[in-house]
Every structure is written in structure tokens, then in C-alpha cells.
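User: C-alpha cells for this complex, please. No commentary.
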Amino acid sequence: MKKNNIFIKQITIVGPGLIGASIGLALKQKKIVGKVIGIDKNKKNLDDAIKKGCIDIGLSKINEKIADSDLFFLCTPVSQIEECIKKLLPFLKKGSIVTDVGSVKNIFSKKIFSDIRKVSDFIPGHPIAGTEFSGAKNATKGLFENKWCIITPENNPRKNVSKLKKVWETLGMRVSLMTAKEHDKIMSITSHLPHLIAFTIVGTAINHNNKVGKSLLNFSAGGFRDFTRIASSDAEMWRDIFLNNKNNVLDTLDEFINDLKKFRDLIDCNRSEDIYNFIKKAKTVRKKIIDLKQN
Amino acid sequence: MKKNNIFIKQITIVGPGLIGASIGLALKQKKIVGKVIGIDKNKKNLDDAIKKGCIDIGLSKINEKIADSDLFFLCTPVSQIEECIKKLLPFLKKGSIVTDVGSVKNIFSKKIFSDIRKVSDFIPGHPIAGTEFSGAKNATKGLFENKWCIITPENNPRKNVSKLKKVWETLGMRVSLMTAKEHDKIMSITSHLPHLIAFTIVGTAINHNNKVGKSLLNFSAGGFRDFTRIASSDAEMWRDIFLNNKNNVLDTLDEFINDLKKFRDLIDCNRSEDIYNFIKKAKTVRKKIIDLKQN
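Assistant:
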């Protein structure tokens, strides 16, 4: 065993859906956790999580049985996280760490950080991983391998931030620290806008009459299918993300609509060379992304 | 050998790029073609096509050496197809068939159809297949398997349409016949709009300052990377598509921008339930696409 390996006696995962259950599965597979408790009012999902070996014990709600946990992963839709922390407060062990996996980070009240700090530490996090499928039944132990995780430490003790960082790294993630504000701006561009577009383009397509509609589905290989893949993500989760990162999402969307209109005008005015250069530039960025991925 | 198998003595592929070279490769692999001639002024691409076994003979321009060909695939950017047919005219064998693979179909003059009909038959086609890579070096024999091909017969003799249909089916494609007008409307939604969006969102992203810019590339796994994949498609090809299907592209884009604005307003006004239903509906369409694919 390597010297810097970690071991956590007990963790609790609130909402062991795709992400939460995959965390449990990966931690257990790496043998760095003793006992994993999952909390979900959805009995079916809890059963799936146990059957797949993602959690050891399932509870339908937060109660004293979680009191021995050293680390908590809150994997609920973002709008429920703060409420969830309030429910955890009476049962938190001294020195434990609470983190979340939500896609919006600049949403927590100062009060919740100070309330929790008396016994524990809330360090927000966001593993950028997932598939278009949801629920524990789709959990995979390799979900986090070679992906990025962003941690937004809000004046948290450095020691605990390092500890959480280490957990994600053990699951194969590269970890980046930044402010919650930076995180939310970046995500509005790289994730929230693409999803918003995907949901919308599907709507634009189905507004067409049935005859064309059927053809749309048949001939979706030309680009449309890629867009619909991310459009099949969880509706509750994404509603929460758009509403909780509203300002950034609207700003980014407005920029994008302006850029679309500019491109529209280039086509409308037959500006052949400008169109060519516009597309060429996009191709260059793509190449940069591939190069980054390979490094 | 099955009774309904076909054999073509000689074919000519003008512009053996990704699509053209893959056609040659697939036809040769299925052993349903005698000799394949490729025409390209790009010497390097021609060499790649020969080296990969996509074509047997490479020519730098259209000349009398193609005169014995039974079938012609025109795989140039769409703006060059009609010009290309004019150059072919002096060398066309009686009873031969000319087709193309362009992404826009309602662009050919009546004159070109009647000019060619004296000796041959021009039957426009569009195999909906491709990758984000271009050139003969990326050709694959399985590129057309289980994909759709649209043929837009413009009063062409039924016999020749059937013959062309059979060729595509032999390469594993499902073939649909429709008018050029229908094709261009459908493609503006399922293919041209997704590409236009992909090119634009990459631009929106890189308009941000360098600090955020670097992060955008790092954290692109949340949806952005999927969009950049199709943004790395060939610039000349896509400029031609946008300009040649201008009316449909602009109409579809305007509808999409309107739909984006509606979604924007739902977020802006915190219309939680409407947002949820909007996303849910997109998910349903996605399911239909998957179901169709499995059938």
C-alpha cells in the first residue's frame, strides 16, 4: 500500500443517483472506504444501489444512523442541497467533511457555512462527469476517471480541502480549485448553454408537422442526434441548474444569440469569405481541445 | 452469389475525399466494381486514396480516360457540382448514371438535367454519413452501414433510380426517395442548424478572455466538447451548404432563435414548472430517436 493512500471509515451519500452511486461504487472498488450509507426516499433507486454494490446500507431519510460518518456527499438537485445540510446538522461528527456534487456553486448562504463550521466543514465540489442516463442502475465505477473535478473552497481549512482533493484524485479525477463565481461563469458556457441549446433545438424540430417530424427522427444522424443525446438529461436537475445560475446563463445565452444573429447576417449577405473564416476558427478551437485531452 | 447482386465495370469518383474515397473502398470491398478512377487536383489526397485501396487510378482532371465509366459519383463541395457535370458531358457514355453526394439538393438548374439526359442521367443523392474528419486518409469501408441515403429523383427514369438505390443498399444504406425541396428543409433542421450552432458556440466561448478561455477548454466535458466535435467539420464544404440552402437555413435559424428567446423568458421569469415540462418534452423526443434506431 502506498504511503499516501487514504482510508475513510464511513461515508454517507445523500441521493445515490448516477453520480452518488458511482462515487460509492468507485470508493468501494478502490477499497478506501469501510461502510457506505445511502439515503434516498426512492426505494427502488436505493435497492438498485445496494444490488449494484454502490452502498452497504440504505436509509429513507437522514437520521442518527449516519452520525458516525466521516464524509458526506450531497448528490441531490442543487435546489435541495442547503436544506439537506440543515437536516444533517444535528448528526454531524466533529471533524467530518460535507461536500456536494452540484453543477452550480455560488448559491449557498453565508449562514450555512458558519452554522456547519461549529462541528464540520462544508466544501462545495463539482465532478464534471456524467452520462445522459440517470439513477443508481446506471452507476459505473470508472465514471470519474480522467475527468475534472472543481472544488470551490470558501475559506475552508486547507487541510480539509486537501483531504477532499485527495478523495477525488483517488477516483482518477484531476482537481482544480477556483471561486464559486468563476465556476458558475465557466459552466454557463461549457455546460449550461450547450444543454439549453440541446433542449431547445429538439423543441424547434418537433414544432414541425408530422410528416417532416418523422423524417427528422429518421435523418437525425447529420448532427441532430448528437444534440439530442444531452437533451435526454434529467429534467429536475437541469431546471434547478438554469434557475440557480440564472444570471450567468442569461448573460451567456444573450451573447450566444447575438453571435447567432451575426452569423445569420453573414449568410444572408452571402459573405462567403467571412463564413469560411468563422468556421475555420471553430475548427482551430476544436483542435486545441483534442490536444489538451491528449496531454 | 445472390441473384440480385450488381456489378459495375467502371466507376469514376470526382473528389475522393472522406465520402468519395469511402464509396470506392466499400464498393471494392464488396467486389461489385471492376475499376475505380479517382479525380482530384490534390495530388496528396489522390495518393492517399490509392494507398488505402479506395481507387485504382488517379487523374488530376476530367479527361477522355473516364469515358468508359458506368457510374459517376460527384463528391465535390456543392457549389462545384454543376460545373463538374458540364466538364463531364463530353465524356459520358450512353446509359451511364451520374450522381452526387452533396448536402443540398434543390440547387441544380433545369438545363443541366436536360443537357445530360441526351446521353446519361443525373440523379442527385445524399448519403447521410460522415465523421468530423476529412480526406481520403480517413476513409472507412463501413461509413455507410445502417445509415440513411436520400435520393431526389427529378423525373429520372425509374429503372436508373432503382439501379442507384441498389448501389447504396449494397453499401448497407437504407434509401429514402423525396423531392429536393423536402430534403433541403429537413436537412436545414437535422444537420445544417446543428452545425451552425456548433460553429457559433465555439466562437461565443473563445470571445472570453484568456483566463476563462483556458478553463473552457479544460472543462469542456460538460457538453461543450460534443458541440465542438461537429464544429471541426470542413469549412469549405459547410460554407457552401449554408449559402446554397440559404432560405431554409435562415428560416430554421429564425425559428430556433425565437424558441431560444422563449426559453430565456421562462428562466428569466422563474417559470419553474414550464422549464421542467420543456426539458421533459425534449427527453421524450430523444427516446423516440433511440427507439427508431433500434428498430
